[in-house]
């Protein structure tokens, strides 16, 4: 990949990677770190990356960085404390569908959550998601189906409670 292709990739994909990271991490500073780390890793290997494959490489790198951050935060307990504080911050029921959807997404396994976010929020094809998550397209379809089924069941339970 040339320097020009790298700069174009930064312009085109940095917002998408940030949105992808923020949906997983729910922390702007950590999402910024993931974006920066992703592009730093791509720059280190820019000579070995084909310009046409940069999108897949970027999101795969971002995905592994996100998983590393989640593992690190779980070890330190920071993300668990934040989630518990947000969940227990008020006894008044909140009927915000976006908040409920975020909670539902957080119940999914990471691979299902990533597949749904890439498909439904970012609009990637099954083949592109397969490249990013290092799966085959059939596995991606199964993960998305299971995730949507879980989300639907979760939201139905919320509907009953409300």
UniProtKB/TrEMBL annotation:
All residue ranges annotated as the RNA polymerase sigma-70 region domain in the record: 13-75
Domain of life: Bacteria
InterPro entries: RNA_pol_sigma-70-like (IPR039425), RNA_pol_sigma-70_dom (IPR014284), RNA_pol_sigma70_r2 (IPR007627), RNA_pol_sigma70_r4_t2 (IPR013249), RNA_pol_sigma_r2 (IPR013325), RNA_pol_sigma_r3/r4-like (IPR013324), WH-like_DNA-bd_sf (IPR036388)
Gene Ontology molecular functions: DNA binding; sigma factor activity
A biological process from GO: DNA-templated transcription initiation
RNA polymerase sigma factor 70 region 4 type domain span: 101-151
Keyword list, A-Z: Sigma factor, Transcription, Transcription regulation
Family indicated by similarity: Belongs to the sigma-70 factor family. ECF subfamily.
Name this protein carries in UniProt: RNA polymerase sigma-70 factor, ECF subfamily
């Amino acid at each position: 990949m040339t320097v020009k292709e790298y700069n174009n990739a930064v312009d085109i994909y940095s917002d998408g990677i940030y949105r992808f990271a923020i949906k997983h991490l729910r922390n702007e500073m950590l999402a910024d770190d993931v974006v920066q780390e992703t592009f730093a890793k791509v720059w280190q290997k820019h000579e070995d990356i084909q310009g046409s494959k940069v999108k897949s490489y970027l999101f795969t790198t971002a995905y592994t960085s996100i998983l590393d951050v989640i593992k690190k935060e779980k070890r330190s307990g920071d993300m668990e404390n934040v989630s518990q504080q947000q969940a227990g911050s008020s006894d008044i029921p909140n009927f915000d569908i976006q908040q409920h959807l975020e909670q539902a997404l957080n119940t999914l396994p990471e691979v299902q959550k990533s597949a749904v976010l890439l498909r439904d929020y970012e609009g990637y094809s099954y083949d592109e998601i397969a490249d990013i998550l290092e799966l085959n397209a059939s596995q991606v379809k199964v993960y998305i189906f299971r995730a949507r089924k879980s989300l639907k069941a979760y939201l139905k339970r919320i509907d009953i409670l409300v």
